[in-house]
Hints:
The active site is at residues 138, 162, 247. InterPro entries: AB_hydrolase_fold, Lipase, Lipase_LIPH, Lipase_N, Lipo_Lipase, PLAT/LH2_dom, PLAT/LH2_dom_sf, TAG_lipase. Belongs to the AB hydrolase superfamily. Lipase family. It is found in: Cell membrane; Secreted; Secreted, Extracellular space, Extracellular matrix. Keywords: Calcium, Cell membrane, Chylomicron, Disulfide bond, Extracellular matrix, Glycoprotein, Heparin-binding, Hydrolase, Lipid degradation, Lipid metabolism, Membrane, Metal-binding, Nitration, Secreted, Signal, VLDL. This protein is an alpha/beta fold. Helix content is 27%, strand content 27%. It has eleven helices and 21 strands. The chain has helices at residues 2-12, 41-45, 70-81, 93-96, 100-125, 139-150, 224-234, 239-259, 273-277, 396-400, 455-468, and strands at residues 19-23, 34-35, 54-58, 86-91, 132-137, 157-161, 184-188, 209-213, 266-269, 289-291, 305-309, 320-328, 335-347, 351-363, 366-374, 381-388, 404-407, 409-414, 420-425, 430-433, 439-443. The strands form three sheets. It has an eleven-stranded mixed sheet with strand order 2-1-4-3-5-6-7-8-11-9-10, with helices on both faces. The protein has an eight-stranded antiparallel sheet with strand order 14-13-16-21-19-18-12-15, with no helix packed on it. Helix 6 links the parallel strand 5 (132-137) and strand 6 (157-161). The longest helix has 26 residues, at 100-125. The termini are far apart.
Amino acid sequence: LCFHQVSEAEMNFKGIESKFSLRTPAEPDEDVCYLVPGQMDSLAQCNFNHTSKTFVVIHGWTVTGMYESWVPKLVDALYKREPDSNVIVVDWLVRAQQHYPVSAAYTKLVGKDVAMFIDWMEEKFNYPLNNVHLLGYSLGAHAAGIAGSLTKKKVNRITGLDPAGPTFEYADAPIRLSPDDADFVDVLHTYTRGSPDRSIGIQKPVGHIDIYPNGGGFQPGCNLGEALRLIAEKGFSDVDQLVKCSHERSIHLFIDSLLYEEKPSMAYRCNTKEAFEKGLCLSCRKNRCNNLGYKVNRVRTKRNTKMYLKTRAQMPYKVFHYQVKIHFFGKTNVTKVDQPFLISLYGTLDESENIAFTLPEVSSNKTFSFLIYTEVDIGDLLMLKLQWEKDTFFSWSDWWTPFAFTIQRVRVKSGETQKKVVFCSRDGSSRLSKGEEAAIFVKCLEQPVSRKKGGAKKASKENSARESA
Length: 469
């Protein structure tokens, strides 16, 4: 009877086509040992660690039928951060190299395989699902979602790395990644270009927290010039990297969060990317900001949360975000569009000079807010310079009408420190003319009083301390 039960148990797993490779820190790019659902001894043979957390990595669609180069990089980074963990790579390469719609449909079966594997671990070894974190890329994100929806108990976390868009953008929750699939679902959207049904990455939010780096449409360093450089360096073998550059950036941002623990990238909740571009969303109140990647704060709201941030073109991706607000005074009513400016920030630790930005519109006697960001940790701000650049093309209107705005103050808020600083013109007000030299602003003596109780006392103390200094 006993024998009959064992064979029956193994029969239950006969339909599983996906393979579960337990990678090792020593050989993150080799499949040296497979965990086989139904075969109890495979866990011992592969040295599965029953007391540690388990990461399950699920790849996406593949043209070549081989693993892409990011897989060992992610495995390696997970082990560097969590040396005792189990990093399992799900191999569904045969199903993943069909025509895209066929592979997309296979995510249901892959998800079922993964769910059966996880349920087996939970039932046979009492392995706690609170220790399970699924990481799925592209089609793999939806396979992870389906797996999470099918397990008898909920897994702890699913991270969707640019979940695939085509055939999933308008799909119902059960067949794609959704917030119900784990206790916590966080998603990175890095390649959401074009009309929704044509976008490589899914555009709509599908997790508890959905982060759209650089607006989610296109990532810095993924342009044609970069592609030509890649081809020059590595030949044509990596041309597919160009197509995948923005899509795959989701993975590298997550790897970055594992490797650069001390430099977490901050993302900010915002209703639209247009509002974010104006710097209007750099608040951390009420969970409005969060870490991207591994150390995300688990916030589960009733409605999903869209978050935005800027990044650099390479690792470490972290930048520092600032909102700048300026009121342009003018004796005559003038409106100009798409004006190029340079701003330089000087702080206690470092400086960042000539950050270029364009204001879509500048008008007399109006206040404008915009976002700037820098790779440099400037520390506390002390001074800034503002310059109105000449247009790159020759323009008669600028030739005939030399015009100046006057600016008295520049308000700056740091996203990363949440500090607000007001800068004053040294002369009471500064002229800003197109193509002329930069206007200089220093920290005003009277800084804005904090609205909290006791803020006024604190501010006056600080001011008297500053003045006596």
